[in-house]
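Crash report, auto-generated. Payload:
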Amino acid sequence: MPVLTYVEAIRQGIWEEMERDPSVFVIGEDVAEYGGAFKVTDGMLERFGRDRVIDTPISESAIVGAATGAALMGMRPVVEMQFMDFIACGFDQIVNMAAKIHYRWGAKVPMVIRGPSGAGVHGGPYHSQSNEMWFVHTPGLKVVIPSTAYDAKGLIKASIRDENPVIFYEHKFLYRRIKDEVPDEDYLVPLGRAAVRREGADIAVITYGAMVWTALEAAAELEKEGVSLEVVDLRSLLPYDEAAVLASVRKCGKVILLHEDTRTGGMAGELAALIGERAFDDLDGPIIRVTAPDTPVPFAPPLEEYFLPNAQKLMAAARKLAAY
Amino acid sequence: MAEAKLTPEQKLAMYHRMLLCRMFEERVYFLFLEGRLPGTIHQSQGQEASAVGICSALDAGDMITSTHRPHSHAIARGVSARSLMAELFAKETGCCRGKGGSMHVGDAGAGMLPAIAIVGGGLPLAAGYALAFRYLKQPNIVACFFGEGAANIGVFHEAVNMAAIWNLPVVFVCENNKYAASTAVEKVMRVKHVSERAAAYGIPGETVDGNDVEVVYQAMVKAGSRARAGDGPTLLELETYRFAGHSRSDPGHYRKPEEVAAWKERDPIARYEARLLAEKVLEPSEMTKIRASIELELETAIAQAEQDPSPKPEDCLTDVFAS
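Recovered output after restart:
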């Protein structure tokens, strides 16, 4: 089976959807000749032409709004945000227009807004954010964050075929750092379904995105100390897989909620509430969050390292919880 | 370009449609005062020539986008008084099944995207719709209504520029009614006309009398032909005035009574009525008949809307996602 990087898998997924459905098109800044800032759309202009690979002005509101208008006509736009930080410039069109159209009057908005998020590459405050919770708090959107190349392809394809606006977060740290076996045939990874990345017995670590790899690294280390972590990759944050979260918590009795996003109002808080409401009797210890602090993402490597959760921080929390 | 010739039937149809807009708004105003409708309303008395002049120049497959002041746009485009009234009454039979209200009315099947009550929000949608028309090789255009207040929000610049660089089949229709809520246009804009801004995008801009339905119609025919021919968008500014306040709670104290009175002298319906009577297109006896038929239409719509079922409370949970 071919081995692809995360970025190649996303490209292949979009490419296959454009081959099978002429209503799929790509729109964004520098996506045509340049192939996108991270080369996700590299080669698409030559294959699919200018009508389907559309370079835009730096106008995020108009890009999202135009994509929404086209989606209302039955097209399936795939919008690239050059960095997910810039999505703030298109916020109104996402949360007030695209997200609410089906509820307001029943029309479908099949659209994907995708782009790179996340830290670890010294991008500083405007090129490193994990701002997924802006959209998780917006009914009508779906929010997807793949952690593997296999999932990246299957999830982007499923997102393009979904009848709703999907915000698709790609972790830029993973683009060229991870590789998977990725079938070069058609397959989908369903939205809203988590995956257990590692079976364990003592502590459930619920996470997503690049932190899945951090959790797996910590799990491998802690196994040597006799602490067994189960690692659950949410893959979708809205809607999210409540059953998978609860099953893992019930199995292990202890839980750590891990994410790269900042602490207050993060996904961990939502999961803690779910677990408190629905699995309280199954808990053998406090619900623990391991997250970034409530600050912007700093640039200087020592600052950024302090900001980001890592395997050492997770292991420290896990050791303490295991001893509880 | 030669002016399009209007037949007596077309003229009467425009007059009838404007009168329906006006009488709908007047009826709705009293329904609110009587406490029979929930929420708020943004009324369009005085702006009927703009709505009807534009929509009368559209084809069946064309699309309009509208604003927080959408009632006349909807009626002008042919959305039924019945489905509008039911939405204002918050009934399940309304054009948004009671999930939108006054500021969301519309019917894509009738050629009007349900209205967009975020100022300026409809401009990029119109561009996207036009982009899809072109990709799908449909010979249609989009008329995008917005107020002069929306010309100051960033997305105006983004969307007009995008439509201009791609020559999209869209006409940007600015209804300049002089006030953004209470704020006079002179306080927030250095240029005299919104249409002057067209130069910045390399597209034609034109300001016309928005209270003369035939002038509006002719301007839209011209801009529409240009868009249909693949020559791109036009920024069309219609000078008009709203007789009512911004919303139900606004008595409009920020406007001088003389100013309001002067604009009421230019009432688009009274003007057109006088002209059609002079042209003998309209007979006084016919006026009475038209008014009576509109009254009946509105009373029927109200009676039906009042009897219609409300949405079930738990319908709150449906339609968040499409499947």
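Post-recovery validation: Chain A has two domains: 3-181, 195-322.
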